[in-house]
Amino acid sequence: MGRSPCCEKAHTNKGAWTKEEDQRLIAYIKAHGEGCWRSLPKAAGLLRCGKSCRLRWMNYLRPDLKRGNFTDDDDELIIKLHALLGNKWSLIAGQLPGRTDNEIKNYWNTHIKRKLLSRGIDPQTHRPLSGGSAAAASGLTTSSTAGFPSPSPAPRPARPVITIPPNVMFARAAPSEDGHSSSGGSTDAPRCPDLNLDLDLSVGPPSSPPKTPAAAASTPTSQQQQQQQRTTICLCYHLGVRGGEACSCKTASPAGFRFLRPLEEGQYI
DNA sequence: AATAGTAGCAACCGCCAATTA
DNA sequence: ATAATTGGCGGTTGCTACTAT
User: Fold this and answer.
1) How far apart are CA A160 and CA A204, in angstroms?
2) What is the pLDDT of residues A98-123, one digit of tens each?
3) Within 10 A of A123 (CB to CB), how many other CB atoms are there?
4) Domain with CATH 1.10.10.60 in chain A
């Protein structure tokens, strides 16, 4: 079957964007808003792939982007979120207004990894290096999800809002039917003994994200409104636990959920 | 001052899931 | 119900700037 290319590569520019291209893209999106990236390049008079336009806009040209250094608080938040979510950069970026997934991904790879290593912590497993080295050496933690099972069954969320008050413990997933259970007693220790997160994962109303320039420009306000209207949902869902499977959220108190993460065979935090 | 090595960042690629026809 | 299309994401690459020798 095969996939058709997203654009005609023979007639598209590649590499660094010029100022003129940036201006064209900005002007077009200001006039017409985001959306339909495939047809945007032609409409805007750009010899670029639609995906490339989207990336340029999202990562560099958006007016609400924050530039400058990350604070220590940002670092700690990113570390905690990474411990919870793995390499879900877009989700992590959603908790840092004005930051992009690409920026955070780069920042993680260039700064935070080293920071954690200097603390003697494995950046993939968030465990002390001495204890986690065996697992790392065995290849168990070389996956793209920081040692966590991929949450692939979860539907792509519409930028959930996660607030992190100071205190909630992780709960380990109960054994599940598909064999992704925490087999044996050797993994009974908490996977992230030093993690103590209180996550309130929420999403805004089901309406589409702002598509018009005006709406896009007012993003911070919109986000505040969405936070006010947000509906709390179960984080297990995002972490790959199927509906109701090994999930006790329904019994959790309104003040907080338990967040469960299914374990791969032989895996642990 | 020149060169080599390293770090940081922007952009590309390929895949996946949702949507549409 | 199925295939095609599109948007979005994470991993990786390559260029540029900076630092050490």
Assistant:
1) 7
2) 899 999 999 998 899 888 888 888 88
3) 20
4) 9-61
